[in-house]
Design goal:
- The chain has 298 residues and is an alpha+beta fold.
- It has eight helices and five strands; from the N terminus they run H-H-H-E-E-H-H-E-H-E-H-E-H.
- It has a five-stranded mixed β-sheet with strand order 1-2-5-3-4.
- The radius of gyration is 30 Å and the shape is elongated.
Amino acid sequence: MRKIIKLLIICIISGSLGGCVTMRKYDSARAEILALQNTLDKRDAELQRILQSNETLAGQNKQLTDGKLSLEMQVEELIKDTAALNTQRRQLEVRYKQLLAQGSAEASRMLEELSRNQADLQARSARIAELEESIAARDRALSDIRQKVEQALLGFDGKGLSISRRDGKVYVSMADKLLFRSGSFEIDPEGARAVRQLSEVLAANPDIDIMVEGHTDNVPYRGTGQLRDNLDLSVKRATTVTRLLLENKNISPLRVISAGRGEYMPLSDENSAEARAQNRRTEIILSPKLDQLLELTK
């Protein structure tokens, strides 16, 4: 685009010096150049916004993963503490009985300590139960949404669609052969049908967050126009799928995040045609809202 603007300027200057361009034609050409420059600036700003969103998304993903690990560590520590407290309690009970038999004044103090120990033990047990129930509820939600997605997309088995669960999320992976032609971000009818069927499940489950990621292989993009490279292509494909999901008015745009990963998160590092085909995909990543779990970690 910048090269086109420079060529227009050169043509105008050359024509003006040659006396073959009127002032009206000069003004018209100058207006066209300004319009083209404005369009280019808007597109650059849009790319920067998308890249910033991509960075924010990566930070959110790390926060959620760290939160889950923190919860699991807390559960392990509480279980260890509970076992130690049980041992201490038994020791106190033995000591208390000994002192009581001796008629010692120490018995009263030991009884109070034993009561405090029992209250602390009950509080820790309640905390463990709360954390374990939150984690179990999250796992049940993941299993439920995966089952519903598999039922909705049953007719697309063997057509470049796969569903898996990892890192506490459900991944709906759609190969490019299902969604897009080579180098294009216009979705094919069969792929659009799969996305719309998935949107019905997501609309019926408002507590599921949605992330749409576009991925390419490592072959440099050779297109022209508004796309410069594989990163641009992956972003555009992700937003195409996102817009199609949002055609379902029962899905709030606040639930959905789009991201372009380019060739930087491949499923396979091999340089074969099969590996490159595997890496060209769009992933719709589903996860239960973690507000309650994140609040517990605080």
